[in-house]
């Protein structure tokens, strides 16, 4: 992270928000002392609330002071034991009797990651500053951007979840409107860089510069995350990372040859889900809200309730008596608005485990073995439908093959590093036309196929441009 900074002014006003033990500031100071880059003074501002780690942070900063003295660099620092979000949000918002926000030439940051509720103190503080986001890390980055001088540099390590999905659209728009994205580094493995944490998504490092014009191209690099691992990098046109016509401002990160070949294969597809006459929705049954109507096993007056645990070999196996999830839901006036008409649906998991080899996992529901007029589809599922009704079978099977293919999985990973697959993400994909999907569906006789067989089928119908 320290190596990503470009030339810095002779006097550097440095920000490290959520500083922890000071490892990031220490790394940057070490690089400045070794490089003889013309920096003569560093004024570091560090924010850290945790009283247990503050003594170590003070110790690290004194070590930085000693190292800078030997290199002929003046180093001063302040450690603020205040809530960065609440403190800076008030200053940025220009609260009456508030102080003017500080300004910085550089920021290096590993912000805290935590969802923040709509009515939480952090969310309210950020909203006062004109920032709308659902996670602390995005709030930190949005505030830091506002504290940078024009040309000021930001290097951060954050979850990759802001790159796609509806919850971060406002943050992406703010980020791309005010920061010039120079470099993105992605780790090939979740576990290597954060092996001691329960990391449900990939983390990326980015280097951005305060400015309103995006570059013609930027550097995309990747490494295993293991100490001493090889770093591979390439220059990519900015228009391949953020597509000019994309209103959602998804950030695509092509980090390997598999991603590039997937992009090439998908490049020839131009059919949207809407033009197929289809849509995808999130399962409407939120089980804890309908707890009184949920039943562990089917009984009179109930209909099937489907969860991801009912996926098996490409089809739905229901009921599942030994499952940790219920199997049925009452069909009554209370539940009926949340039930869907029985029919052939393509279901996908909204959340996949870190161990699953595919990010996209699709499964076919065929009602021919279930005599039920309605279905309960739980909120951890997405389902493809045609105006609220089921799909024609060959079309559904073609979609099944397409979404479960390696090509689509690799393409999807270009813009999503999270284990969550939102309905919005599926709407953003391009698809083969209806005729092609139906032809694939007609050819695929058995759904429970090895991955190689599915890929062979899809590649037969989808060819990368030569």
Q: Any overview of this molecule?
A:
29% of the residues lie in helices and 23% in strands. The strands form 4 sheets. It has a 9-stranded mixed β-sheet. Strands 11-15-12-19-16 form a 5-stranded mixed β-sheet, with no helix packed on it. The chain folds into 2 domains: 255 residues, Rossmann fold (3-Layer(aba) Sandwich); 188 residues, Adenine-n6-DNA-methyltransferase TaqI, Chain A, domain 2 (Alpha-Beta Complex), CATH 3.90.220. The chain is α/β, with parallel strands linked by helices and 466 residues long. About 1% of the residues have low confidence. Helix 3 runs parallel beside helix 4. It is elongated.
């Amino acid at each position: 992270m320290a190596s990503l900074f470009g030339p810095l002014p002779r006097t550097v006003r440095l920000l490290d928000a959520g500083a922890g033990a000071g490892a990031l500031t220490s790394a940057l100071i070490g690089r400045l002392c070794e490089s003889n880059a013309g920096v003569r003074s560093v004024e570091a501002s560090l924010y850290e609330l945790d009283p247990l780690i503050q003594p170590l942070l003070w110790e690290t900063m004194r070590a930085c002071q000693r190292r800078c003295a030997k290199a002929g660099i003046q180093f001063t620092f302040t450690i603020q034991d205040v809530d960065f979000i609440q403190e800076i949000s008030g200053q940025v918002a220009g609260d009456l009797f508030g102080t003017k926000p500080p300004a910085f030439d550089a920021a290096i940051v590993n912000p805290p990651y935590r969802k923040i509720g709509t009515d939480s103190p952090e969310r309210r503080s950020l909203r006062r500053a004109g920032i709308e986001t659902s996670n602390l890390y995005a709030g930190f980055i949005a505030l830091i951007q506002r504290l940078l001088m024009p040309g000021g540099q930001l290097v951060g390590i954050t979850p990759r979840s802001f790159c796609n999905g509806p919850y971060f659209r406002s943050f992406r728009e703010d980020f791309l409107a005010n920061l010039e994205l120079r470099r993105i580094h992605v780790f090939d493995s979740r576990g290597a860089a954060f092996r001691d944490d329960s990391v449900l998504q990939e983390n990326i490092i980015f280097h951005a510069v305060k400015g309103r014009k995006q570059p013609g191209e930027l550097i995309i690099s990747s490494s295993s995350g293991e100490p001493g691992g090889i770093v591979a990098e390439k220059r990519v046109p900015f228009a391949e990372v953020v597509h000019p016509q994309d209103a959602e401002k998804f950030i695509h990160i092509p980090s390997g040859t598999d991603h590039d070949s997937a992009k090439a294969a998908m490049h020839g597809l131009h059919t949207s889900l809407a033009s197929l006459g289809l849509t995808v929705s999130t399962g409407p049954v939120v089980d804890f809200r309908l707890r009184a109507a949920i039943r562990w096993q089917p009984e009179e007056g109930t209909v099937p309730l489907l969860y991801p645990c009912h996926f098996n070999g490409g089809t739905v196996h229901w009921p599942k008596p030994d499952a940790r999830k219920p199997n049925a839901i009452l069909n009554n006036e209370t539940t009926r608005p949340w039930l869907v008409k029985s029919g052939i649906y393509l279901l996908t998991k909204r959340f996949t485990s870190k161990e699953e080899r595919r990010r996209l996992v699709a499964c076919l529901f065929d009602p021919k073995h279930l005599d039920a007029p309605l279905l309960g589809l739980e909120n951890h599922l997405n389902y493809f439908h045609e105006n609220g009704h089921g799909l024609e079978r060959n079309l559904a099977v073609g979609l099944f093959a397409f979404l479960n293919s390696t090509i689509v999985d690799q393409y999807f990973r270009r813009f999503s590093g999270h284990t969550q697959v939102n309905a919005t993400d599926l709407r953003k994909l391009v698809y083969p036309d209806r005729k092609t999907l139906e032809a694939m569906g007609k050819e695929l006789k058995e759904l429970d196929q090895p991955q190689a067989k599915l890929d062979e089928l899809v590649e037969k119908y989808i060819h990368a441009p030569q």
